[in-house]
Amino acid sequence: MRSDAFDVLDGLNSALDSKGLLTGLTVGVVTFVCGLVYGRFRKRRLLSWAVLYDEPINRTFQDDGPDMWEISSQGQEIDKGSLVVLDIASAGRDDIMESDFALPLSFQFPGREVVHFKVRDSEHVRRKTIEAPDEEMQPPGDRSKIVLPLFSLNRGVGFKLLVLLKETASGPGASNVRGYQVVDGGTVRGGEVQQRKPRDRRYWFRVIATGTVLLLLFGLTGGIYLANRVITPHPDCAIGTLTVLGSTAFAPIANNVANEYENACSGASITISAVGSGSGLDDLRRRPAPGVIAMTDGEEGGNTPGLRVRPVGLVIFAVVANKNLKLFDLSTTRLRDLFRATPSSANGSFVVVGRGSGSGTRRAFEQTVLGARSTDFPASATCPTGSSSTPVACTVNTTMDLLTYIERTPNAIGYAEADALTYFPNVRTLSIDGTSATRSATLDGSYHFVATEYLYTAGQPRGLTANYLAFLTSDPMTARLRDHSYVACSELSGTALAGQCT
């Protein structure tokens, strides 16, 4: 591998030392000048938006027919409805952060009333809209308006806003000729909010200019690409089978890494088995094998003779609840009152859902939130089939079981890995003492509901086991996992959690 890298770099140097020298210098100068010109005229922060679709629903020359739809939202029948699809993107030089907004981004639809809206293509913005109070996003005094919560958006990244509307009495009316409008609002410091106009001659001029620059940059880009391939680590492939079992919270991350490894290494077969931290480690203790890794949320206190253990990072957990409860934040004191063997009726008729006694997630919750190594919460108790009018404490086996139960139980509350809510639209994360379960809050030490993830092997890992562990902790994989509720040990240096991986 190293020899190949030097061969490629030597080839690039030879090209520059011969007739390619002048070309290389020309490309460099052109690139520098173009960068200065582009950077001068491109705004630092720019939120651009465009109307992809804005049309009435069921608006034909006939009152009925086979092409008419029955449109309703949350049981409300929509008459004289219309659908709008907006494309919103960060088109400036810099990323847009929440602190960059002087006024939040908003959209107004004169003559129409917002019935419902959804965000697509950005999980970050979607979660923000789910967690924000409805009255802040849709002001009661102006139903024609949507005010989005503050959000971050990397440059070049965007999302879609889908809006279902109905016409008001002062709207365009029932004719096919209508004058729909969309009006933006909001203020971005050091930039602006701007509607994208239809493509004109200037657009095609920019396309031609960009194409010319790309042709000039082709040679240089090829060299950079080759150099990057040399210095970018790839998994060392090994043939064989590997089983990774244990923590249900870390299993999605382990599976993500396994898929990346198998895509690069056709001779490897990796199976992820989410059976719980305690069960996974017990299985490895009983049957130690070189092709098995056990995942635990937190280091086990019992004897592990013959097993090697290594920390790989932190998993971020969150208190979760059914949205019907209208909860957004709970204090540590109230959580301690709720998660008892017999919850007090003074706190309400919650169905309090925990994990079984062998769960690493439960252990992390008890130690970091409840402040105890163990509690009197039931080790195992069957949950009721529906909501209960009296407080109930019960347990489930896995993260998915817990979220599935809370999804269908209107007064249920529990805890789970913070990244697992994608497929549970009726479940929201709650902040603890006003602090949300975010990566930044974890790194600055203000959010404590986390657990160090430990991986156990039977003796010194070798072959596929060793290569998988190396790939999981490599810099490229660490960077790829930053979108998950996970912080690698290599990212903790210099933070408040620097000692968590010792």
UniProtKB/TrEMBL annotation:
Database matches in InterPro entries: PBP_domain, Phosphate_ABC_transporter
Keywords on record: Membrane, Signal, Transmembrane, Transmembrane helix
Keyword Cell division: no
Pfam families xref list: PBP_like_2
Residue stretches making up the PBP domain: 234-475
Domain of life where this protein originates: Bacteria
Membrane-spanning ranges: 20-39, 203-227
Keyword Metal-binding carried by entry: no
The protein, known as: Substrate-binding domain-containing protein
Lineage: Bacteria, Bacillati, Actinomycetota, Actinomycetes, Streptosporangiales
